[in-house]
C-alpha cells in the first residue's frame, strides 16, 4: 500500500515528528511504500541541518535524512511555511527538498492513505 | 475510516469531538498524550467506557510505556498495539482522521 | 529548489478532500496555513469539504480587526474560498464538489449563528456531519 | 498575584485550573484565545460568571477585536483593557502566573 | 557567544521561584526543559517550589520506558532535583527552601497515588496549594 | 518598574511572541524598563535571521531586533534550547545574543516582575 505523511510540528517541542517517523519506519518494514513525507507549519523545522541535540537524545533531522536515503522516501518541505520560519537551501538538511504546497495535494491524490501527525 | 486522538482527555476536547463526530463502529486509536484516556480508575474512565459501546478502542503501547503506564493499568476492552499494529489499522480501515 | 523534483501522475483523478478546522484564529497559525492548503487544492480540481467545528467556527467570524495585535487579517481570504466554491458549482464540465460546513453544536455552544460568518455555510448537526466525514478519502487537520 | 489565561475555555482546562488554584480576590486577565471566555451566551458563560464572584475579571481588547468579538458581546462585569492596561495590572498586582 | 555579556547583580538576593508543570511528558518537551531551568536555579541558591498539577503529575510517574518511542527518558533527572532539595534542607548556612508538591485533586482524578511517583512529594489539596502559589515571587510555567 | 520577559514559542505558530512584543512595547512606552527578554523552548526560533514572512505580514525577528536597538533591551536566546533547534551564531539575527539558562534565573531575581508568554 502507498502512504503519504503530513508532519505539522517541528522536532522536540511536540511528539508529532517522532510519531510520524516511527509510523513510517514500521510501514516500510512491513513492505509498504511511503511515497512522500510533507512537512508543513512548524514541521519545516525538521529540515534544519543546524539542529544539534544532546548526544544522548535522538536526532530527528538526521534520522529522517537517513530513512530517505535508504528507502527512497521523498521528504518535501513546504516553501511558504519554510520561508516564514527561516528554512532555506542554505540550512536545508540532506535528504530534504523544498517545494510547493501542491505537493501535499498531489500525494493526497496519489497515495492510498494520507496520515497526519500534528498538535 | 479510523480516528486517531493524540491529546490528553484531561486537558483538551479532542476526544470529546472525536466521539461526537464519528459514526458508530469506527475504531479510535489513542496515541501520544491521548493514551492517558486508556487507564482504569480515572475521572474520564466512564466516558471512555461509554464510547466503547460504539467504537472499537485501541491504544499505542510504546506511548503508554513512555508515560510509565503498564498494560495492567489499561481498561478492559482496549486493545494495545505497537507501531506495526498502527500501520495495520490504517491499512484495514481506510481514511485516517487525526483529531489534533 | 533541489535538483530532483518528483511528481506523481494525478491527471483525471478526483478525490474527496476534507479540511478540518478546530482551532481559533490568531492564537495559533493553523487557520491561516490550512487556508493556503485549501486554495492550492482547487488548482488540482479536487472535491473539497471545508469543515469548521469546535473553536474553528471563530475562524469565519465577521468583524475581525487585527490592527491592534499587528497580525495579518486573513479572514478576507475566505471570500476567495467562496468564489472557488461558486466556480466549482457552476462549471458543469468539472466534476468538483465543494462544501463549506459549520457544525451546529459548536456554533451554538459559542453563542454564534449563521449571520455571524463572513461566508455562506451549511450548518449541519453533528450526527449528520459524522456521516459526511466518514465518506471522505483524505482528511487534513490543522 | 495576577493570573493570565491564554487558552480557549472550550478547548482546554487552563481556565478551570486557574479558577481552582487561585485565591479569592486575585484578578484574572484573559488574553489570546483565552478571550473566548469573555462573551455572553456561550456554554461557559455561567462558569465565568461564577468565577467573577471571587475574581475581578479582565479581557484584552486587541485580542477580542482580532477575533471579531465586539465590546457589546462581552459579559457584564468584565473590564476590557489594552496592552497598556495589561502592563498596569501587572505593576499593580505583583507576581504574574501564566496559565498556559 | 556575542561580545556583550550583560549581567545583573543578584548577590545575596534569595527569591521565591515556582515552577508550574501542567503538561504530560513526551507529548511535548515542556517537562524536560522546565527541569533544566529548575536545576540551573539551584546554582543561584534560590527558593524553589516545584509543582505538579493537571497532567503534569504524569511527569513523575514511575516506570517510564521510552525505548520504543526512541525519546530521551528524563524521569531519572527528578532524582537530582530531590538531591538538590536534600542539600537545601540540610545546609543550615544556606537560606534556601525547596518544596516538591503534587496537587491532590489532579493526582486523584488520574487514578494515581503518592506511591506512583519517582520522588517524594508533598500531596496538597487545591485550596491550600492556591495559598502557597499566591506567596510566590516568580512563576515559571512551561 | 523593571520587567523580565520569558518567551516560550517561536513566531507564527503561536501568538506568544506577538503578545510578548506588544506587552514589552507598551511597558517601554509607559516609562518602564525591560531588562531582558529570554527566549526558551521554541522561543529560540524568534532569533532565526533567515525568517522571511510575506510582505503583508509582520516580521517578529526584525521587530524584536529593532526594539532591542532602540530601547536597549537585552534579547537572550537559551543556548541549550537553541542548539537542539538549530539556532547558532551563523543564523542569529541582529540584536540577539546566545547565552545560558542562568540568565533566566538572573532576570527573575533582578526584575520586579517576570511575565511568561507561551503555549
Q: Return the average pLDDT of chain B rounded to an integer.
A: 98
Given as residue ranges, the uncertain stretches of chain C (5+ residues, pLDDT < 50) are none
Strand order of the largest sheet of chain B: 4-3-2-1-5
The CATH C-level class name of chain B: Alpha Beta
CATH architecture field of chain C: 3-Layer(aba) Sandwich
CATH superfamily of chain B: DsrEFH-like
Determine the fraction of residues in helical runs of chain C and give it as a percent range.
Answer: 25-40%
Largest interface: A-C, 27 and 27 residues
CATH superfamily of chain C: DsrEFH-like
In percent, how much strand structure appears in the residues of chain B? 15-25%
CA-based shape of chain B: globular
Euclidean distance between termini CA atoms of chain B? 16 Å
Q: Sketch the major β-sheet of chain B.
A: 5 strands, parallel
Q: What is the level-2 CATH architecture name of chain B? A: 3-Layer(aba) Sandwich
Per DSSP, the total helix count of chain C is: 4
Would you kindly provide a written description of the structure presented here, covering whatever features stand out?
- The complex is a heterohexamer, with two copies of chain A (119 residues), two copies of chain B (100 residues) and two copies of chain C (142 residues).
- With 119 residues, chain A is of the alpha/beta class.
- Chain A has helices at residues 16-29, 60-71, 79-85, 102-110, and strands at 2-7, 33-39, 74-78, 96-99, 113-117.
- Chain B contains four helices and five strands.
- The radius of gyration of chain B is 12 Å and the shape is globular.
- The mean pLDDT of chain B is 98.
- Chain C has helices spanning 30-43, 77-90, 104-109, 126-134; strands at residues 16-21, 47-52, 98-103, 122-124, 138-141.
- Chain C has a five-stranded parallel sheet.
- By secondary structure, chain C is of the alpha/beta class.
- The chains are: A alpha/beta (119), B alpha/beta (100), C alpha/beta (142).
- Chains A and C meet through strand 4 and helix 4 of A and helix 1 and strand 5 of C.
Amino acid at each position: 500500500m502507498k502512504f503519504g505523511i503530513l508532519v505539522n510540528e517541528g522536532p522536540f517541542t511536540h511528539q508529532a515528528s517522532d510519531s510520524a517517523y516511527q509510523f513510517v519506519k514500521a510501514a516500510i518494514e512491513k513492505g509498504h511504500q511511503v511515497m512522500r513525507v510533507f512537512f508543513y507549519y512548524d514541521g519545516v523545522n525538521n529540515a534544519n541541518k543546524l539542529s544539534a541535540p544532546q548526544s544522548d537524545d535522538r536526532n530527528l533531522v538526521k534520522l529522517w535524512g537517513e530513512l530517505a536515503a535508504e528507502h527512497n522516501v521523498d521528504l518535501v518541505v513546504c516553501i511558504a511555511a519554510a520561508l516564514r520560519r527561516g528554512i532555506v537551501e542554505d540550512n536545508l538538511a540532506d535528504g530534504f527538498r523544498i517545494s510547493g504546497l501542491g505537493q501535499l495535494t498531489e500525494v493526497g491524490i496519489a497515495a492510498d492513505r494520507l496520515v497526519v501527525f500534528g498538535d | 475510516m479510523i480516528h486517531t486522538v493524540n491529546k490528553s482527555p484531561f486537558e483538551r476536547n479532542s476526544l470529546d469531538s472525536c466521539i461526537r463526530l464519528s459514526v458508530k463502529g469506527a475504531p479510535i486509536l489513542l496515541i501520544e498524550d491521548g493514551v492517558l484516556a486508556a487507564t482504569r480508575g480515572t475521572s474520564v474512565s466512564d466516558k471512555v467506557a461509554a464510547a466503547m459501546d460504539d467504537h472499537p478502542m485501541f491504544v499505542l503501547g510504546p506511548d503508554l510505556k513512555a508515560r510509565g503506564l503498564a498494560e495492567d493499568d489499561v481498561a478492559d476492552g482496549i486493545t494495545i498495539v505497537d507501531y506495526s499494529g498502527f500501520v495495520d489499522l490504517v491499512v484495514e480501515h481506510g481514511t485516517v482522521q487525526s483529531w489534533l | 529548489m533541489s535538483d530532483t523534483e518528483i511528481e506523481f501522475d494525478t491527471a483525471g483523478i478526483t478525490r474527496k478532500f476534507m479540511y478540518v478546522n478546530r482551532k481559533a484564529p490568531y492564537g495559533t497559525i493553523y487557520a491561516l496555513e490550512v487556508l493556503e492548503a485549501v486554495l492550492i487544492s482547487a488548482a488540482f480540481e479536487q472535491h473539497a469539504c471545508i469543515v469548521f467545528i469546535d473553536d474553528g467556527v471563530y475562524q469565519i467570524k465577521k468583524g475581525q480587526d487585527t490592527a491592534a495585535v499587528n497580525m495579518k487579517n486573513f479572514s478576507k481570504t475566505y471570500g476567495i474560498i467562496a468564489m472557488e466554491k461558486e466556480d466549482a458549482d457552476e462549471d458543469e464540465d468539472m466534476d468538483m464538489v465543494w462544501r463549506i460546513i459549520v457544525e451546529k453544536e459548536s456554533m451554538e455552544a459559542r453563542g454564534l449563528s449563521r449571520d455571524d460568518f463572513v461566508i455562506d455555510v451549511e450548518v449541519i448537526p453533528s450526527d449528520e456531519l459524522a456521516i459526511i466525514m466518514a465518506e471522505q478519502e483524505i482528511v487534513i487537520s490543522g
